[in-house]
Design brief:
It is built from one helix and ten strands; from the N terminus they run H-E-E-E-E-E-E-E-E-E-E. The chain has 173 residues and is mostly beta strands. It has a five-stranded antiparallel β-sheet, with no helix packed on it.
Length: 173
């Protein structure tokens, strides 16, 4: 009986308030429609240029410096798992870009809110990241060396089609 009484009182006040011309307002659960937010994307190139530093010079990757290694960093605000991908293209759009590396991140995984990869650019125009045996041939994007390309980081929500990205122009030497 005691458990029924609060429900009856709540029903009574709802009926009384709705009769007074009160407006019904839907309150969304902030976690219900939550999607990941890309907060930062940075690259350290072959010349130790770090995009996290203000007023950095243009980025360049050389297969002959540091064995072609460069680093990728990201910071994401996400309550759920998300996929992070590194892509490259010869124009500043994701359409037609080449996927270099991808990983699922989230709580209890190798990457959660932040992550990083060590990536490689080779003199025969291949890229790979994080020690992956899978190398991506980027030669279709190369017209002549040096070649300007765009390095993208893309994050996608694991539960919806929502994605967002950021990019930097990079010169391939």
């Amino acid at each position: 009986m005691i458990k029924i009484l609060p429900a009856t009182i709540l029903f009574f006040f709802t009926v009384v308030l709705s009769g007074c011309g009160g407006e019904t307002v839907a309150v969304d659960d902030p976690h219900e429609n939550y999607v990941p937010e890309l907060r930062a994307f940075d690259i350290i190139d072959s010349y130790d240029t770090d995009t996290a530093q203000s007023n950095h010079p243009p980025l360049a990757l050389s297969p002959y410096l540091y064995d072609g290694l460069y680093e990728i960093f990201w910071d994401v605000n996400s309550l759920e798992d998300y996929t992070v991908s590194l892509r490259v293209n010869d124009r500043p759009t994701l359409a037609g870009s080449l996927l270099i590396h991808s990983q699922v991140c989230g709580a209890g995984r190798r990457c959660d809110q932040t992550g990083s990869w060590v990536c490689e650019y080779t003199n025969d125009f291949y890229m790979s990241c994080d020690g992956s045996a899978h190398e991506k041939d980027i030669y279709p994007l190369i017209n002549k060396v040096p070649q300007k390309v765009y390095m993208f980081i893309e994050i996608c929500d694991s539960n919806s089609g929502y994605c967002e990205f950021d990019y930097y122009p990079v010169t391939l030497e």
